[in-house]
Amino acid sequence: MNKILKKITSKTINFYIEQNLNDFYTKSSYHPNFISHLEDKISWVDTRNVDWPKCIFRANFESLNAENEISNIKRLIQKGKAPNGWTVGPLTKPDNLGMILEKNGFLNVYQQAGMAVDLKNLKKQILDENDLVVEIVDNEESLNHWITIVSSVFGIKIDSELIEFLVLESEAKFYIGKFEGKVVSALMLYLSSGVSGLHAVSTLQDYRNRGFGLTISKIALIDALKMEYKVGVLQASSLGERIYRKLGFKKYCDIISYELNAENK
């Protein structure tokens, strides 16, 4: 792991931001409840029963053949044989794949900032004090709380069997935050490709604007630092981007989600 960490520079951080996300998708695709398609040219993870994770990712097309590849996948989406969600980031080839997708009936539905932070600087960041108690998920009850929080905040259906599978994997660590005894926050820390990634950071609506999201994130990332990880990454909304700058995160790239226009389905 240390050899990988030594190679991380501002010039290569884009790779690690997206690769951490791709690693999570790939790991999830191994679960028997999910339908996976993994190859050098294109990959996806899909499921018929839940909402997350399911998307096309890791496109690696030749520029001259990109439109033909997109047309083939478009037909699979229309037949229900591939997920209608396509993640495009700095690793995507060709570099203008997003423009080609839009030309072929896909819509830019969600844009996130790919961000990173040097973990050794985390302890210098002073956050507003609050009474959030952060715990690592280590039993069925706290696991169910995690699923409930994330499902509620994002409005998605989550496969509990997938989360039970990931809890046992060394790459994934799940956290919950309690305020006055009530579970109000949650996130997943995914450790892969030499970096620590924050995913599914959630706080119940009635408990927002109290700094709980930053508190649970900082504690998870400090845990990663103790495990000798040096870089933290995440994908943030426009609001989240402003918030995570308080922890020292900087934007390095865009991670964009596309979906096939309903008229083309």
Quickly describe the structure.
The protein is α+β, with helices and mostly antiparallel strands and 265 residues long. The protein contains eight helices and eleven strands.
Description:
- The protein is globular, with a radius of gyration of 18 Å.
- It starts with a helix and ends in a 5-residue tail after the last strand.
- The strands form two sheets. Strands 4-11-5-10-9-8-7-6 form an eight-stranded mixed β-sheet, with helices on both faces.
- It folds into two domains: 2-113 and 255-264, Aminopeptidase (3-Layer(aba) Sandwich); 117-252, Aminopeptidase.
- The chain has helices at 2-6, 13-29, 66-78, 97-103, 140-154, 160-167, 212-226, 238-244; strands at 35-38, 43-46, 55-57, 86-88, 106-118, 133-136, 172-179, 182-192, 195-203, 231-236, 250-260.
- The protein has 265 residues and is α+β, with helices and mostly antiparallel strands.
- The model is unreliable at 1-5 (pLDDT under 50).
- A hairpin with a 4-residue loop joins strand 1 (35-38) and strand 2.
- The longest helix is centred in the first third of the chain and has 17 residues, at 13-29.
Supply the CATH superfamily name of the largest domain.
Answer: Gcn5-related N-acetyltransferase (GNAT)
What percentage of the residues does DSSP assign to strands (E)?
25-35%
CATH architecture of the largest domain: 3-Layer(aba) Sandwich
Q: What name is given to the CATH topology of the largest domain?
A: Aminopeptidase
